[in-house]
Design brief:
The complex is a heterodimer of chains A (112) and B (116).
Chain A: E1 3-6, E2 10-14, E3 19-26, E4 32-38, E5 45-51, E6 56-59, E7 62-67, E8 72-77, E9 86-93, E10 101-102, E11 106-111
Parallel strand pairs in A: 2-11
Antiparallel strand pairs in A: 1-3, 3-8, 4-5, 4-9, 6-7, 7-8, 9-10, 9-11
Chain B: E1 4-7, E2 10-13, E3 19-25, E4 31-38, E5 42-51, E6 54-57, E7 65-70, E8 73-78, E9 87-94, E10 106-107, E11 111-115
Parallel strand pairs in B: 2-11
Antiparallel strand pairs in B: 1-3, 3-8, 4-5, 4-9, 5-6, 7-8, 9-10, 9-11
Classes of the chains: A mainly beta (112), B mainly beta (116).
């Protein structure tokens, strides 16, 4: 069966630095890969989606890369701020009628 | 007003009780989902529905049932609650008729359920 792993359960980073979160997967060929942000006690919020034929996607201070050969996506937050502290989830999206498969998330703490 | 609402937001119940969690959406989406989230286990899919007449089991459907009463309403029932069903439950929607990706999820605020 498919497996998705976010390499760190928690990541601490200094304010102003770039945070890099990793999502690896096996036994799957996603059409898309999605990233969500979740604050404590709240529902996840969609951030970005990258297609299988895209190498990189940007949105403001966020950048996502997708390497289908390595079966890996990297999620970067540049110039990180304490307000970026949250749990970030990646999700495999097979497209069509295939439900998403979520990773367990990485809890990011940005320290002032 | 929130696009996806869940009631109740918090519930404490006893083992063996029947519980219903409700979800309503005003996004006009055709697809709806129920997930549970446990510390260390992430989000796991319980049931999903692509339209009113379509219900599908997810990864962990045992002990749960659902009803899709209308396009905008999807309820989750625990027929006889047990303590290991204590978790945070989320409802989500997606637009299956969208051009392009159809599985982008829009989540409700969650229901915290405690079974004693």
């Amino acid at each position: 069966s498919q497996k998705i792993e976010q390499n760190s359960e928690a990541l601490n980073i200094q304010e102003g630095k770039t945070a890099t979160l990793t999502c690896n997967y096996t036994n799957y060929s996603p059409a898309y890969l999605q990233w969500y942000r979740q604050d404590p006690g709240r529902g996840p919020v969609f951030l970005l989606l990258i297609r299988e034929n895209e190498k990189e996607k940007r949105k403001e201070r966020l950048k996502v890369t997708f390497d289908t050969t390595l079966k890996q996506s990297l999620f970067h937050i540049t110039a990180s701020q304490p307000a970026d502290s949250a749990t970030y989830l990646c999700a495999l999206d097979g497209g069509g009628n295939t439900p998403l498969v979520f990773g367990k998330g990485t809890r990011l703490s940005v320290i002032a | 007003d929130a696009d996806v609402t869940q009631t109740p937001r918090n519930r404490i119940t006893k083992t063996g009780k029947r519980i219903m969690l409700e979800c309503s959406q005003t996004k006009g989406h055709d697809r709806m989902y129920w997930y549970r989230q446990d510390p260390g286990l992430g989000l796991r899919l319980i049931y999903y529905s692509f339209d009113v007449k379509d219900i599908n089991k997810g990864e962990i459907s045992d002990g749960y049932s659902v009803s899709r009463q209308a396009q905008a309403k999807f309820s989750l029932s625990l027929e006889s609650a047990i303590p290991n069903q204590t978790a945070l439950y989320f409802c989500a929607t997606s637009d299956g008729l969208a051009q392009g990706p159809v599985n982008t999820q829009y989540f409700g605020p969650g229901t915290r359920l405690t079974v004693l």
